[in-house]
Amino acid sequence: MDISLIVPVYNEAEVLYAFFERLNGVFSSSEELKDLEYEVICVDDGSTDSTPSILEDLLSRDSRIKLISFSRNFGKEAAMFAGLKFASGKCAVPIDADLQDPPELIAEFVKKWREGFDMVYGVRVERSGDSPAKRKTAELFYKIYNSLSERPIPRNTGDFRLIDRRVIDAILKLHERSIFMKGIFNWVGFKSVGVPYDRPERVSGGSKWNYWKLWNFALDGITASSTIPLRIWTYIGGAIASITGIYALYIALRTIVCGVDVPGYASLFVSILFFGSVQLIALGIFGEYLGRIVAEVKGRPLYVIEKISSNLAEPKE
Ligand code: UDP
Ligand code: MG
Q1: pLDDT in tens, 117-162
Q2: Rounded to an integer, what distance in angstroms lies between the CA atom of residue 250 and that of residue 248?
Q3: Ligand 1 pocket check: which of 76, 201, 202 to mutate, most ligand atoms within 8 Å of Cβ?
Q4: Fewer CB near the terminus (10 Å): N or C of the chain?
């Protein structure tokens, strides 16, 4: 097998046929891809619409299409991880089913791969498919993530990329529970290159993300890649303590020179609230990490598989 496409699918009934039609078109017409042997591993992430029956139908018509069905919705990250585990290709390409990742780009990925790159990632030049608010918050996330993490992620990259077998094997050796694929792709290293593309709008249906999900996803990403939010409190505490020391000295001197000063209710109240909140924020951040430690210690699997299609072999452990 040359190339394994990994398609996480969650309630995509409206787009699946169009997706496979376009994908097959690309593989049969592109010079770069024509001779490649490929498989398409669909991971049904607990869809509740007619996605499963559509997938069965596609499967019965094309033996290159394979299917892993989860017992419920576990999220895109888990779906991609499962796909990578079952992939038998010399390289893999995670690709969204909603046609926001243009399949035509795979040809360019493969070209770069043949030139010797282990990872070729798509860079979204034009994100007109996303709302301005989503673009702004995404930008803010990258800014914060990159200033905290030891390995900054290239801006405007998604999961759409080609990764060589060496990278897949490196990723599969990781045992963490809270996976943030973009961070992991980047963490493993290897020779990488970006290919620019325009990210179109979803052909149909809606994004599976809402802001609350995205916020938690961002927290997962940051806590998985950095411990700086845990450690800054020493310095914040130190800084506040020094300022308090100077202020205390000032009050003492002023009392000696000008006598006792009784008013101060407002400033007292404000500072109590201020330090109370600072402490609660610190505790909250500890909680974010602690919760994830609990998840890691429990060591539950990332996903539960209900069934796999008969043309898919169990991966070697
Ligand atoms: N997806 C998934 N599980 C989920 C949410 C999404 O497998 O819980 C899949 C979805 O079917 C699609 C891809 O992940 O193929 C990207 O999802 P979406 O288009 O909603 O994300 P966006 O493009 O808005 O980032
Ligand atoms: Mg999408």
Answers
A1: 999 999 888 766 677 887 888 888 888 888 888 888 888 888 899 9
A2: 5
A3: 76
A4: C
> At which residue do the structure tokens 């598989």 appear?
305
The tokens for 234 are 């020493």
Residues with CB under 6 A from ligand 1: 8-10, 12, 45, 73, 75-76, 79, 96-98, 100, 207-209
